Amino acid sequence: MSNYWGYHLAVDAAGPKLEAISSIANVTEFAKDLVKRIDMVAFGEPQVVSFGSGNKAGITLVQLIETSNICCHYVEDDGNGGTAFYLDVFSCKTFDNDVVLKCCEDYFGKTSNRIHYFVRQA
């Protein structure tokens, strides 16, 4: 028996393309592609909803996977004239962080990232 619960990648990304993060279709396709690229199994369709106001407005993505979830909030206006997204990938099955980052770049353009990676303990 292992002494871990899972793996958690958190990405704070500044500067994604506005048109990419404000498109429900693009965010939905990103979720579906990311699940495939990191070899996970989706549990249902991704939930992709645009809501909020001011610099809290944007699209939020929730994709359940058999081993946990992928969540992201996309910020169209960070209050300083920029864009951002905040991605969490959590799974009890391992995945390649570089593959996650490449998928983000393919869908949202180059960004300046702060990366946090945790091995979660039970």
Write the layout of secondary structure elements.
Elements: E1 4-14, H1 18-21, H2 24-37, E2 47-51, E3 58-65, E4 68-75, E5 84-91, H3 97-108, E6 112-121
Antiparallel strand pairs: 1-5, 1-6, 2-3, 3-4, 4-5
Keywords:
alpha+beta; 3 helices; 122 residues; single chain
Q: In brief, what are we looking at here?
A:
By secondary structure, this protein is of the alpha+beta class. It has one domain.
Walk me through this protein's architecture.
By secondary structure, the protein is an alpha+beta fold. The protein has one domain (18-67, 77-121). It is 25% helix and 41% strand. It has helices at residues 18-21, 24-37, 97-108; strands at 4-14, 47-51, 58-65, 68-75, 84-91, 112-121. The chain has a six-stranded antiparallel beta sheet, covered by helices on one side.
Return the structural class: alpha+beta
Taking the sheet with the most strands, its summary is: 6 strands, antiparallel
Compressed to H and E, one letter per element, the order equals EHHEEEEHE
- Unreliable stretches, pLDDT < 50, 5 or more residues? none
Strand order of the largest sheet: 2-3-4-5-1-6
Overall morphology: globular
Specify Rg, calculated over alpha carbons.
14 Å
Strand coverage percent? 35-45%
How many beta-strand elements?
A: 6
Count of helical segments? 3
Query: End-to-end span in angstroms?
Result: 11 Å
Number of domains: 1
> Helical proportion?
10-25%
